[in-house]
Write a structure and sequence with these properties.
The chain is built from 21 helices and two strands. By secondary structure, the protein is mainly α.
């Protein structure tokens, strides 16, 4: 980090905060504060929805996911266009007709206060946890690579978001997210073209794809029904559709984004815009990670991208062995470079393998990458032996390592601004939605005496601050998971199936009444927790995406069962 990088970083973040405060000052009624005055046009709605989902985790974890596993993760988003169509046809018109502030208001009119409160509470629990993770994700990585104090970073990011979110509510979130998405797209395109330019002169983009393909990084589609594999075409289409239906259709952090639209048409167009752009955007971010993989076929890499993990080995009995693995990794790099050049100049070329047999250059390159993975696994084992508290999984550190070690001065600051802007945009949406749900579904709904609009705006601001503080506390006590982008989606999948089941029952099965759906939701939530625990301990295998399908179906099935039992009991009586 040079002076110019600090200037770019600080000026960018300060501009976002001050712009949000300036553009949205003085909003004193609930319509303006929670629904942004219904002033947003379709493209603004679409960008806001996209920015809410595209957190810092997206730009830190996704390239690392592609570096390790290739483009297959994009299958996770295959259900999104299907979900968007259903939401535009059924969900948005109902919300618009009822003129609701939160999605859960509808549930009281369809069922009763008890069901509304349950769905709201499940949302608050899941999104409250996720808000802490969206702060924690960039903090822990920036802390590791820059040497900054982790908790200080959590507090700085959290407070920056709280300042402009409190100031202008939904409108502040919306107007700043347009600037943030501009910064994010600019930064990612710059990173992509720089990676291509850093490749050897005789390696163009098409050659880079050939090298990536030789190592299995371009395998997009997996049509298997293997539950050991989290990301397949079927899990994306089925599990992904249910997850996206719940996220975009019932999660207040998303619903609040399109409820700010000027009209029903603007809301629907905004969601369609997001649906058309989201999958290509995720594919592009994954492609950036694949290009980073190709870049490191020709350039040296650390045995573990997490600098804190490498540092943990120094001065321990495992340091010598760890350094020996690093030497072997460096030797492999020269072999990878030669084979990569050979592959693009003569794809049919054959080489002699270590076993003495003759294999194609493509097979030889794949074998070397497999050998590299084994070395990295051995390195992780040594790190774990040296310090059990250090994160050995380094997927989330791959892209930030590339940024800090290869980008020119000034652009490092821009890419860090991208990461922090993404963190701020998603966290702001979450805090805004948490405060709105708490204010509308619990505080205002249960307040006996009449109060003016300004009172509820002030209440929403206090709830924003409270949730902001809680999110910072969660961030300060969180632990890294296998991969941060997976952690956020796992948290969602634990609750979204139940919430979606409640809404699907409300929309499409009129004979289900409040008592039945309430019992069905409670039972389902316990089942989902149990299934997740059984999968975690490998008693049964059920990838988390399928929890959304199981949860939704279980709520409907249990509700129908309870409803039919109630009717039978009534008839018998």
């Amino acid at each position: 980090m040079q002076t110019i990088d600090w200037i770019v970083l600080v000026v960018t973040l300060a501009f976002i905060v001050l712009y949000g405060v300036y553009r949205t000052r003085g909003r004193r009624n609930v319509q303006d504060y929670i629904r942004g005055g219904n002033e947003s046009k379709w493209w603004s709605v679409g960008l806001s929805v996209m920015a809410t989902q595209a957190s810092a985790i997206t730009f830190l974890s996704t390239p690392g996911q592609a570096y390790n596993d290739g483009l297959g993760f994009v299958q996770f988003y295959f259900g999104l266009p299907i979900a968007i169509i259903i939401i535009c046809i059924f969900f948005i018109p109902i919300y618009y007709k009822l003129n609701v502030y939160t999605a859960y208001e509808y549930l009281e009119s369809r069922f009763d206060l008890r069901v509304r409160s349950l769905a709201s509470a499940l949302f608050l629990l899941s999104r409250g946890l996720a808000a802490g993770i969206t702060i924690f994700a960039p903090s822990i990585i920036l802390s590791a690579v820059l040497g900054w104090d982790l908790n200080t970073l959590n507090i700085i990011i959290g407070l920056l978001v709280v300042i402009y979110t409190i100031s202008g509510g939904t409108k502040a979130v919306t107007v700043t997210q347009k600037q943030q998405m501009g910064i994010i797209f600019s930064g990612m395109f710059v990173a992509f073209f720089l990676i291509i330019s850093y490749l050897p002169e005789d390696i163009n983009f098409n050659n880079a794809l050939e090298i990536a393909g030789a190592s299995g990084k371009l395998n997009v589609l997996d049509f298997s029904f293997d539950f050991e594999n989290r990301y397949t075409f079927w899990s994306g289409i089925l599990g992904g559709t249910f997850l996206m239906l719940s996220y975009f259709g019932t999660d207040q952090s998303q619903v609040q984004r399109y409820l700010s639209g000027k009209s029903l048409r603007e809301m629907q167009l905004g969601m369609i815009f997001n649906g058309l752009l989201k999958v290509p955007m995720q594919f592009f971010i994954l492609l950036v990670g694949v290009m980073v993989f190709v870049f490191y076929q020709f350039n040296p890499t650390p045995l573990n991208f997490n600098p804190a993990a490498t540092k943990a080995v120094h001065g321990t009995p495992f340091e010598k062995e760890y350094n020996g693995l690093q030497v072997k990794l460096n030797e492999l790099r020269s072999d990878k470079s030669e084979l990569s050049h050979l592959l693009v100049t003569d794809p049919q070329a054959e080489v002699t393998a270590q076993t003495g047999s003759t294999v194609s250059a493509k097979t030889a390159l794949a074998n070397i990458n497999n050998e590299e993975n084994k070395l990295r696994d051995q390195g992780r084992m040594l790190i774990g032996l040296a310090d059990k508290n250090v994160e050995t999984n380094d997927k989330d550190y791959v892209f930030i390592h590339f940024i800090l070690n290869n980008l020119p001065r000034g652009l490092i600051g821009l890419l860090l601004a991208v990461i922090l802007s993404a963190a701020m945009s998603s966290t702001a949406s979450e805090l805004n939605a948490l405060a709105a749900t708490t204010t509308v579904d619990f505080y205002r709904r249960n307040l006996k005496e009449d109060r003016d609009e300004a009172h509820f705006v002030d209440a929403a601001k206090w709830f924003t601050l409270s949730w902001g503080i809680l999110a910072i506390l969660i961030a300060c006590t969180a632990n890294l998971f296998d991969n941060l982008i997976q952690l956020v989606n796992i948290i969602g999948s634990l609750f979204y199936g139940t919430i979606l089941g409640i809404f699907m029952s409300a929309f499409f099965i009129k004979k289900i009444k409040s008592r039945a759906v309430f019992i069905g939701a409670i039972v389902t939530q316990l089942i989902v927790f149990a299934l997740f625990g059984l999968d975690k301990f490998e008693i049964i295998r059920l990838p988390y995406l399928w929890l959304n399908v199981v949860g939704c179906a279980s709520v409907i099935a249990w509700s129908l069962l309870v409803q039919s039992t109630s009717k039978t009991g009534t008839t018998a009586a």
